[in-house]
Amino acid sequence: MPNIPSDPIMLLSFVNMKLRDQYASLDDLCDDLDIDPAWLTDTLQAAGFEYSSEHNKFW
Q1: Per-residue pLDDT, 12
Q2: Is 5:11 a contact under the CB 8 Å cutoff?
Q3: Which of 44, 49, 35, 38 is nearest to 4 (CA)?
Q4: What are the boundaries of each domain within the chain?
Q5: Could you write out the DSSP letters of every residue in the chain?
Q6: What is the CA 15 to chain-centroid distance, rounded?
Q7: CA 24 to CA 48: how far, in whole Å?
């Protein structure tokens, strides 16, 4: 995995910025950055955030 934030709030900010600026979907981001999508969604869900494919962001 690339050097990404471990703190859930910082991770949320990092991922949403990448989704907004560079990636059309969560799958694109995970593929390009070699991040396990299950790990990412589980980590952010544990902090209370859900991914919206319609909005292409976690909230």
Answers
A1: 98
A2: yes
A3: 35
A4: 8-58
A5: --S---SHHHHHHHHHHHHHHT-SSHHHHHHHHT--HHHHHHHHHHTT--EETTTTEE-
A6: 4
A7: 23
Residues 7 and 17 sit within 8 Å (Cβ to Cβ) = no
Q: What is the pLDDT of residues 1-59, one digit of tens each?
A: 558 999 999 999 999 999 999 999 999 999 999 999 999 999 999 999 999 999 999 99
Structure tokens at 1: 């995995």
Whether the Cβ atoms of residue 40 and residue 30 lie closer than 8 Å to each other: yes
Residue 20 exposed, middle or buried by CB count within 10 Å (0-12, 13-18, 19+):
exposed
